[in-house]
Fold each of these.
Amino acid sequence: MKKNQRLWYTKPAPSDAWVEALPVGNGNLGGMIFGGIQREQIQLNEDTVWYGGPRDRNNPDALKNLPIIQQHLLDGNLKEAERLTYFALSGTPQSERHYQPLGDLFINFENHDESPEDYMRELDIDQAVATIQYKMKGIKYKREILTSAVHQVMVVHLTAGAGGKLSFMLDLNRHPYYDGTYVINADTLMMRGRTGDGGVSFRSALKVVSTGGKVYTLGRHLFVENADVVTLYLSGRTDYHGDDPEAWCLEKVEKAAQVGYEVIKKEHIKEYQSLYRRMHIDLKGEKTEDLSHLTTDQRLQRVKEGKEDVGLINLYFQFGRYLLISSSRPGALPANLQGIWNKDMMPSWGSKYTININTEMNYWPAEVCNLSECHQPLFDHIERMRESGRQTAQKMYGAKGFVAHHNTDLWGDTAPQDLYKPATQWPLGAAWLCLHLWEHYEFTEDLEFLKKAYETLKESAEFFVDFLTEDQQGRLVTNPSVSPENTYFLPNGEKGNLCIGPSMDSQIIYALFTACIESTSLLESDREFGSLLTELRSRLPEPTIGKYGQIQEWAEDYEEAEPGHRHISHLFALHPANQITVRKTPNLAEAAKVTLKKRLAHGGGHTGWSRAWIINMWARLEEEELAYENVVALLANSTLPNLFDTHPPFQIDGNFGGTAGIAEMLLQSHEDEIHLLPALPKAWSQGEIKGICARGGFTIDFEWEDMKVSKGKIHSKNGNLCRIRSSVPVEIIKDGESIGVHYEENEEVVVFDTEAGQSYGLIPKR
């Protein structure tokens, strides 16, 4: 196995320590593996197991009270506006549906009453296979667990070093919302249930195939006695998909059993590696130690003690890619707040899609880290949201287009979520999600995709054409809204959340309008709408520098109630957008630095996802050592023993944001150029990365030594003009010969033509 490609431990995860179990998944079906000795627990999830059914939660009193609320805000009557908003603009009922676990599979072993020898529990992220092995009474036991996207089953393969030594009882269950587990035949169980009134009906099938020994049922349990080799095949499905989940589950386990474990494993690894092995990373320092002989929790503890471990950062980066492949596949739902891994019937924040940062962050690594297909579930879910979003736009705002607030769920719910004044009334959720459609186009330049995506982008923009109103300075602003989840002080000391035109809103709308305008040009259609948006965009508030030299968060330069707040929404223009850049807007870039330093000085970055966002922002500001400092802080302060990110509690967004941040330190492409090593810290003075992607349809491999690019290869998918920025002048090689190029900015930028499908070498200029 390659170094830094596995998580491994010398003891099981405690039964009460879910955050030490190891995750497997195929996009739809997920499992958390504890690695127990007398009892193995695999906690199960299926991505469509959500409580309850769809509802219309749009407040019937919203539209008639909206102009009253807007006028209150214009008149400075904040408390009246907030009071009326609380009742008239909240969802009815207040909350969307929440995600639930599928159940648990327990394997209770016989004759395992002694302490094991040579115990090891590992997750090989290069093959997406978890392994537990140990010796008991002189016999070596081994079990491998994988979740196949090819065959749509989870497989547990158990072996022993001597014949007839595998004996155990299988328990497949769930509590509550559980009808029961039933015997289908002597080797197959079926778990049945429904997730509450009007909720989805779920099924999970478990089939046992044994070599030697005996397989039989008692009550709702399956027993295996004195077997040589045993393979368990497990499937899960709900009627959300519109088919018969029980028949589907049985078909999958029966077919898998016919195919057999060795073939399933081989096909699983091949299919998984077709995604995972697109990228390779090897960060090194001058004195990098090989610490792969230490367990993952030992290495993490060393980082918490202030010691360096560049290899762990390589592992963390690829673990983020592993998690995205495992929780977001075409045909599945998008990764939620916990990917697909959730143990609680009532999880924190419902384990929903929180779309004022968290869901978007889940997909920051998708394009740059060469996992474009894994972006597709998000696009599909945006389409599910459109009909609901149209209803919300019409019923609440009297507007065309579609809108969503700061959460959505399985059913694409778009009405306001919760009764939480700092967050609930924020109508930018769908707009931010739609920018992922544009990002996919920017990386792939797939015009057929853009033709379809444009209709969605346009419909999101149409809402703001109707909703934006003039403020007292004649600017077009949102009213009402909030700056996600922050609170300000009025000059009289009064606290407020509701406001007119918070900075993030204008920045998102600017990006959305720009994507639509550029789409009309690329598609050579709908130019009239593009012209309208161009005029409206010119009237949006621009990023403003406040009294402390910071980027202003609200239309007024208010004091913050929490200067170290976890959300840094007003720097959306810096990242993920590109309205603030080091070279094009240097004054705003300096103000962004002030903003970040002020947040951090007051305790900011205390949640994993916030720290991950800060990494990306420092990378965009080309502050390499500050970006690295926050990578280390993410590992030291916000990473659990199984490398899951913690808010706390566990949220997966920090994993994805951390992986994206490391990529952003090594390559950026948001300024119509490919910038190599824009934020390379001294701790990574040498290294290589292969398969990283850039906007414009480029894939890049490159190496560096002594902080400088030493060689590279650029593959052009679309034949675009290529601009490369590097700290050392480079020349471009084709077929062993230097090709004609154009240099700019004292040879920091090299510009050259490419042909579609061709690759070009890169070396330091001789």
Amino acid sequence: MSSSLWIEVVPMKTGAAGEASTSQSDKIARLQRALAESEASARKKIAELEVIYRCAPVGLAVYDRNLRFLRVNDALARFNNLSPAEHTGRSVEEITPGFGKEIAKCLQQVFESGKSILNVERQRAAPGKPASKQHLLTSYYPLCGEDGSVFAVCSVVLDRSERNRAEEELRISEARYLDLVKNSAYGIFRATVDGTFQDVNPALLSILGCNRVEDLHALNLASDVYRFPEQYAQHVADCRARGLVHGAETEWKRRDGGIVAVRVHLRHISIPGNPETIEFIAEDVTELRAMERQLRQAQKFEAIGELAGGIAHDFNNVMGAILGWAELGYEQNRENPQVAERFARIREQAERAAALTRELLTFARRQVLQPRAVDLNTIAGGLTSFLDKVIGKDIELKVLTTTVDPLRADPAQLEQVLMNLCLNARDAMPRGGRLAVETEMVELDDSYCRFYPGVTAGRYAVLSVSDTGMGMDNVTRERIFEPFFTTKERGKGTGMGLATVYGIVKQHGGFIHVYSEPEQGSLFRVYLPVIEGPQVTDAAARARVASLAEMRGTETILLAEDHEAIREMARQTLVSLGYRVLSAGDGMEALRLCESQEPALAILDVVMPKLGGPATAEKLVERYGLLPTIFTSGYFQDPESLATAAAHAQYLQKPYSPTTLGCMVREILDKPKREAQKK
């Protein structure tokens, strides 16, 4: 019997075991899917980390134990001006020869200690840009295995070059601004709204007269500095409302008690968490305002002077004619005492009016000076005996002089300056006191002259007149040089004394300072420019009054005067003295009259129609050579310009008397004879 294999296939029954097998398969599938997803996520994160690593703005590098680069990112490669691939496998000393040893030392320390090294600063020349500096901040971190050993080191490098440059520029900028604030001529500071000082600069200390910042912090801006606290309150209110206040002027009190005028600019500052603050920029304008007041005063005097000179012009001619005719009438009626007395009274009043006119012209600086080298001490000493008689026994007079340089001045007018100042001082001491006259030399520099318009630097002789009288307040002090201003009772003074002083001093190129307080007396200081180099001075010799016979002559005189009354008075005066007179109303007519005959002397009015006196004199010199000339004028716009034309001429101020004219004519005509006799 043959054997056979019987295999029976029995269908498998489903049950609990089959279900378990299916569940296991699903779990495996899920695990496989989760593993795949995890691997994909890891690959994604690794890719992201790779992107971050490569694109990070900081430099990243990994070093092996041989201190060679394992890998670097793009930023670090750029720092070294190489590609990432050029770093791999190369040592730090190859890549960074400038300070590779320093890096190697740090890496070696991390490998050995297993500890990080943070924030190592280095500076080097930028690769490829030797002129540019590169500032790097590097930290080193150990990379450890499962057993804790360090198998690599990672470095993180931050390029701080731009930041350092910005910080340096900021530091320089702050230093510049700090220097600007510290050395500014303006006071710059901040204060809280209640007046507490915060930051201040040195200029503010100077403005307020403080030596230390602590002195200033002891003061309150509102109550101790502002002269009028209500102004501070108004400034703060305006600043709060508008944010800014520009060019507000106020007065501050200095720590020493003085007052300064300031112009302030304010800015409102409101920062959360900080006290409300006002920022100030303050300019000290005290000297500027003083200069403006002086300039306004000078401009006012100029305007008054123009008016006074214009009035004096016409008035001078009228008074000249009255004075001349009165004297002629008096001389012709000596035998009739009653008529002569009336002419004498007319002449007396005319002389008073003429003196007033001269004072007006002096104030207006329209007088033509007769300057020469004079000694101020001689003038002061010469008037001492006269002043003793004038000022009274109840006033003590002292004259203190020091050596002074000579002046080029009109001695008669300087005498008038000293006399008027002393008489003014006498009137200020009705109950007696002390009067001092002093002379000295001073040197004024440019820094002094900046504060006084019209004053030039140089050497000055100073005449000081001080008294212990009633003094003056500010209002009076600003008006004392105005014509006809007086503090005396009506009828007790003309108000022209100090105005005359002002005009004379200004015309001599000088200036006056006045110091006075009520009940504290007054001090007048007259500054007059001196002559450079040695000069010969002599006292002004007074011409003696010549007799009528001594004034007579027979020469031919050319007379040119546009005012008819004065011309006729002068003509009759000269004719009565025996002279032959060629009388003309202007310069052109004068030239025609003397075409056929040469005059021995020309008397020419300075200002005439058609052709004035100086121009006429030039024509006469061209025709006859050096011709003796007398210029006459009562009002001349530019007396200094007469100096060239009158280099060899005399000047006769209107109004003049017939006697004065006759004496001057004879003196000039006889001058060549006197000089010949001396030889």
